[in-house]
Amino acid sequence: MSVASKPSPMMFMPDPQPSDGFEWTQAPWGPVLHSAALQPFATHFFTAATLRLRDDPEEWRQIAERAGVIEDRLRLLHQVHGNRIVTAASARGERPEADGIVSADPSVALVVRVADCAPLLVADRRNGAVAAVHAGWRSTMRRIAPEAVRTLAEKYGSRPEDLVVALGPSLGACCGEMGEEVVAAFQQAGHDSVSIDRWFSREPGRRPHFDLWRANTDQLESAGVPSASIHVSGLCTRTHSQVFHSYRASGPAAGRMAAVIRANR
C-alpha cells in the first residue's frame, strides 16, 4: 500500500498552530507547512511526521511530485553537521558531504532532512536563487546560515537585503537542553559573550538551554538579512513530537522531515 493511500490521523489537523505567517496545507499524504512570505518567490514545503523519509522510495516519489520535479531531480545531501554549502550541480548522483545547498535552476528541488535541527529555506526575491540549509547546534556554531548567504552572493550575485528566509519546525529553546561543553564549544569557535548570553539561557538547577531559532536569526541579521525578512515557524519538534519527528523524543528510531525548495524561475 502506498503512503498516499494510508489513512492519516493528522489529515486536516489544525494544531499546533505555527506563527510568523506559516500555515498548514494538505499534501496527498497529510499536512505540510508553507511560509506565506517565502511562497511568492519559491515553491517550498516542510513535511511533518506522516512521512518517515527513511527507505521507502514511494515517499520520495511523492516529495518530488509535490515539488514539481521528477524524482532524479531531487538534490539531497550527506549531512555531517558542518558548514559546507554546495551547488545543486555538484549534488548530482552521489550525495556530497555538506549541510547546505544552493541553486537557481527551476528544474531541481533542494532537500535537507531534519529531526530537531533547524531547516532553513532561503529565496532571493530579486533573482530567484534558493538555498536549503540544515542547521543543528554544531552547524550553527560553525555559522552555516551566514555561509549560505555568502555562497548565494558568490554564485548568483544575491544581496542579503533581497533574501527571504523561512525557519521551519525544530528544537525550541524550551527543550534545547545542552551541556556546559556546548557553551564552551561556542566560546572556542569565537562567538562573543553577548551572543552566547542571548542564545543560552540559564536557570538555577537547570543545564543551559540553547535557542536555535534566535542564534540563526541573529547570525542571518549579522550577515545583512533584514529582520523583517526572517520568518520562524515557532514550532518545537520535541514539544509536538506527535506531529513532528524528534530525535530528542524518539532517539535513533526517529524518522526524518524534509524541507524542500525549488526556484520558480
Describe the overall structure.
Mean pLDDT is 94; it is low at 1-9. This protein starts with 21 loop residues before the first strand and ends with a strand. 23% of the residues lie in helices and 25% in strands. The protein has 265 residues and is an alpha+beta fold. It has one domain (3-7, 14-171, 226-263): CNF1/YfiH-like putative cysteine hydrolases (4-Layer Sandwich).
Give a short overview.
The protein has 7 helices and 14 strands.
Strand content: 15-25%
Q: What spatial form do the alpha-carbon principal axes imply? A: globular
- Taking the alpha carbons of the first and last residues, their distance comes to 36 Å
Give the CATH level 1 class.
Alpha Beta
CATH superfamily: CNF1/YfiH-like putative cysteine hydrolases
Low-confidence stretches: 1-9
List the total number of helices. 7
| Sequence of strands across the biggest β-sheet | 1-2-3-14-7-4
Question: Which structural class fits the helix and strand makeup?
Answer: alpha+beta
Give me the CATH fold name: CNF1/YfiH-like putative cysteine hydrolases
Radius of gyration: 17 Å
| E-strand count | 14
Helix-strand pattern, N to C? EEEHEEEEEEHHEHHEEHEHE
Largest sheet: 6 strands, mixed
Count of all domains:
1
Give the overall average pLDDT.
94
* Overall helicity: 10-25%
What is the architecture at the second tier of CATH?
4-Layer Sandwich
Main attributes of the structure:
single chain, 265 residues, alpha+beta, CNF1/YfiH-like putative cysteine hydrolases, 6-stranded mixed sheet, 7 helices, 14 strands, 25% strand, globular, disordered N terminus
